[in-house]
Design goal:
The complex is a heterodimer of chains A (225) and B (419). With 225 residues, chain A is mostly helical. Helices cover 64% and strands 4% of the residues of chain A. Chain B is 29% helix and 24% strand. In chain B, the strands form four sheets. Chain B has a seven-stranded mixed beta sheet with strand order 12-11-13-15-16-9-17. Chain B has a five-stranded mixed beta sheet with strand order 5-6-7-2-14, with helices on one face. A three-stranded antiparallel beta sheet of chain B has the order 1-4-3, with no helix packed on it. The chains are: A mainly alpha (225), B alpha+beta (419).
């Protein structure tokens, strides 16, 4: 136990000076001191991830260089090929930051992965002749794959329903998009789009039959005003 | 327990205006007379949490409002961090909005204010410490004072603000701006804690000399000390306003474990250089005037009215958040200079007393209201905790010097070592 003669207070501390007025404390031998009252100060550790910094630096330089070359050579081959590089790099970053190291739940990461992959493949398709294979086949199959995986995850762990339901809804809505594009004659092959739409539709029906009450509850709380 | 519920009236604003600099956390701790065992504490926590459905929740974002949902995970315990009341990630904390930690003899809980207020959190911590001691093998009679031994009732998670919403009490309120602090903020959101312990009996005696309660007396002491440290304050022509939270459970019948507190303010013009007697008289009149059931009812009406506005309810949460955040930045603490909350006496079963040294309470600080005082007492030990986000500590010094001038023996402790 120590004493500050200026403030006239007892101070229980390891400090040499008074925490109030910073004058030197006098030791009182009589009373015992209880030390380590609080954990010792330590600086917050700032994570400095050299790998990601190098990767970020290289990605930006790559984008800059490839776009520049693309612009210079644009007259010779009228093609925005550098967009493929840009899209691939964005995809790579999302793969790293969201899908692998992200902190969302698995269905949400799956949805983000599926969306970015669809965009990437669409860009590649568009810039390499636009054979429409991305819209005709890739996107419907991707949406079906993600919807099916979410359903399997859900059946395996029904407790997580309330956490997974927003991703499930997103996957269902996404499943209808190829079919809607077909209606507007943007997609030419019907069967993959129609299968994706039917899967979405049957999922909705199944959801209401097996978990109608839960769905109503979920909607109520998410939309309460 | 309901499947989900809305945030109460006071809780609604906090999730949107929380940042590293304004954590909206407060902390309660029990100092035992022996080293805390982390295994038993974990067991006690896992057991206690089931009795408190209103604490066993996670915060979720809806389209229009936040809401609480039952949490199926187990709450975690931590070894105490040197950073007090620092914002933490709910996600990394298994979704829980509170954090239980231990350090040598201490069991502490840091609670996000949306969850509950000081009184609600105290009930939880009391039960946790009680269960800890029982699991440790001590024979303690709970005397009906510990909630784990009482069946839980619906009323405990009622939003008592809504319950006491009464259209007959209308009022308009306008707040003058208050004096603000000027100081050097600590790096890394460090919070300097300076606690002073005094004897309740001695303090009561001194307060009675002025015919005041302990709260009134301490409030006057703070205002007087602020007058002594004017160099730290800006816009000296504005009044110094003390923000004093009030536990409404003492005024309205309610057993809720969620937020049910409001606040009163007392304002003093520091430039007038009033004497201590004059200040304590102003505080006493302000308190007597503000602390009336009718006035509080009117304030509840005012706050709940905003929440009931249909137009406002229909604004998507994303936009609500942006507006709230900006508004808070501009006006948030304009009307407060310093917050002073007194939880009062902690009542524990008699058999628990010998195991507990003292109880402490402290509030987080923000950049706009960088110094706060929180008071709690157990048996004869009253602990006043100043939490400071700024390096300067003139007001703390003046405050404790004033108390010792009144003849009180003050014991100072701090979480800070010399730089």
């Amino acid at each position: 136990m120590k004493k500050c003669t200026e403030c006239k207070v007892l101070v229980n501390t390891e400090r040499k000076t008074c925490p109030l007025c910073f004058t030197l404390l006098r030791n009182l031998e009589a009373q015992s001191t209880q030390l380590t009252l609080y954990p010792k100060y330590r600086s917050k550790t700032v994570r400095y991830n050299i790998f990601f910094r190098i990767l970020a630096f290289l990605s930006i330089v790559t984008v800059f260089v490839s776009v520049s070359i693309n612009i210079i050579n644009y007259r010779e081959n009228r093609n925005f090929w550098s967009l493929i590089i840009v899209a691939s790099l964005i995809y790579l970053w999302i793969l790293f930051r969201s899908t692998i190291r992200g902190n969302g739940n698995i269905p949400r990461r799956l949805i983000i992965q599926m969306l970015t992959l669809s965009v990437l493949l669409y860009v590649i398709d568009r810039l390499s002749g636009y054979g429409r294979w991305s819209l005709d086949f890739v996107i419907p199959f991707l949406s079906m794959a993600s919807l099916l995986s979410i359903i399997i995850l859900l059946v395996g762990n029904t407790v997580k329903f309330q956490d997974y339901v927003s991703a499930l809804f997103a996957a269902i809505i996404f499943g209808f998009i190829p079919f809607i594009l077909w209606l507007f004659k943007i997609v030419s092959t019907l069967w993959p789009s129609l299968s994706a739409a039917s899967l979405s539709f049957s999922t909705i029906i199944g959801m209401f039959i097996f978990a109608g009450g839960h769905i109503k509850e979920e909607l109520k709380k998410r939309f309460h005003i | 327990m309901k499947k989900w519920y809305k945030l109460d009236n006071a809780a609604k604003v906090f999730p949107s205006v929380t940042s590293k600099r304004r954590s909206n956390l407060f902390r309660l701790s029990f100092n035992l007379k022996e080293e805390v065992s982390s295994e038993i504490l974990y067991k006690a926590l896992s057991y206690t949490i089931n009795r408190f459905p209103s604490m066993k929740v996670k915060l979720k974002k809806g389209i229009f409002w936040y809401y609480f949902e039952p949490n199926s995970e187990q709450p975690l315990i931590y070894e105490e961090s040197p950073y007090i009341c620092n914002k933490f990630s709910f996600k990394e904390n298994n979704g829980y909005l509170f954090k239980v930690s231990y350090f040598h003899n201490r069991i502490a809980i840091e609670v996000f204010h949306s969850l509950t207020d000081g009184a609600g959190a105290l009930e939880f911590l009391k039960a946790l410490v009680y269960n800890y001691l029982v699991m440790k093998g001590y024979n303690i009679d709970s005397e009906n004072l510990i909630l784990t031994d009482i069946e839980n009732i619906n009323e405990e998670y009622q939003d008592s603000f809504l319950k006491n919403y009464d259209k007959r009490f209308k009022s308009k309120r306008y707040e003058r701006k208050a004096l603000q602090w000027r100081g050097t903020l600590y790096q890394e959101n460090w919070l300097a804690l300076i606690t002073g312990t005094v004897s309740v009996k001695a303090l009561k005696e001194v307060a009675h000399r002025y015919n005041a309660t302990i709260t009134e007396f301490l409030a006057a002491c703070i205002i007087y000390s602020a007058g002594q440290s004017l160099n730290l304050l800006e816009n000296k022509h504005k009044p110094f306003k003390l923000f004093i939270p009030v536990d409404l459970r003492r005024i309205f019948p309610s057993r809720t474990l969620r937020n049910f507190s409001l606040y009163i303010r007392t304002a003093v013009d520091l430039e007038k250089k009033l004497s201590f007697d004059e200040i304590i008289n102003i505080v006493k009149t302000d308190m007597a005037e503000e602390l009336q059931k009718d006035k509080m009812q009117a304030r509840i009406f005012q706050n709940v009215k905003i929440e009931k506005n249909l137009l406002l309810r229909l604004v998507p949460l994303v936009i609500k958040e942006i507006v709230l955040r900006m508004g808070y930045k501009v006006w948030g603490d304009n009307a407060n200079s310093l917050s002073f909350s007194n939880i009062g006496r902690v009542i524990l079963p008699e058999a628990m007393g010998p195991y507990i040294d003292k109880v402490e309470f402290c509030n987080g600080a923000s950049y706009r209201a960088p110094i706060n005082l929180a008071v709690i007492s157990f048996e004869d030990k009253l602990v006043m905790s100043f939490s400071g986000a700024i390096v300067e500590r003139d007001i703390q010094r003046e405050f404790f010097r004033l108390l010792s001038d009144f003849g009180l023996a003050v014991l100072i402790e701090t979480n800070e070592l010399e730089v």
